User: Fold these one by one.
Assistant:
Number 1:
Amino acid sequence: MSSENTFDRRMLEALVCPETRAQLTFDKGAQELISKAAHLAYPIRNGIPIMLVDEARKLD
């Protein structure tokens, strides 16, 4: 993985789910931030988390 595609895990401490304000977990394999409370996965593109509910993937 190139350096432009890496996610700074320290950023995770500052980010919360925009839908629920709950903590997020990082899924390295899928390059997503997971909100268990909202059942959503927010994508990380080029190292930047896309924190828009409309862009999030619904989890089962």
Number 2:
Amino acid sequence: MGKKKIILDTNIYISAVAWGGNPDKIMQKAINGEYKIYLSVNQLKEIKRVLAYPRLKFTNQQQQDFLSFLYKLCIIIEPSEKVNVVKEDHDDNLVLEPAIDNKIDYIISGDNHLLNLKEFKGAKIIKATEFLDEVENVLPDSDKSNIRS
């Protein structure tokens, strides 16, 4: 079984860089090579826009550093098609687009519009906490033989 393929919602990226917590844990695990993160060029533009919000108080240098970091960490894709699944907030559809062609395992979000879908193109849509609980509680078969009852 290969590395889990995941998509992170924009709110997960911003939470990771601004506040840490479970979103940051997921990013750290990706840095360590535990997951492959897929990111569309359209969502990258949205992240750039959100990083510039005055209320977040990121300097221009911090914004550029984080975007450069994402270019190195993520598999950046040009989606083969646009989707219009989330009618209430069209920006949420950007998060779904990499799942069309890439057999994504999980979409991690804090957004109810996405969470309410529960699944898209075979990818389970869950919160950061649920993702960490789920993947950390699943041991590969080879590790199960070492567990004593």
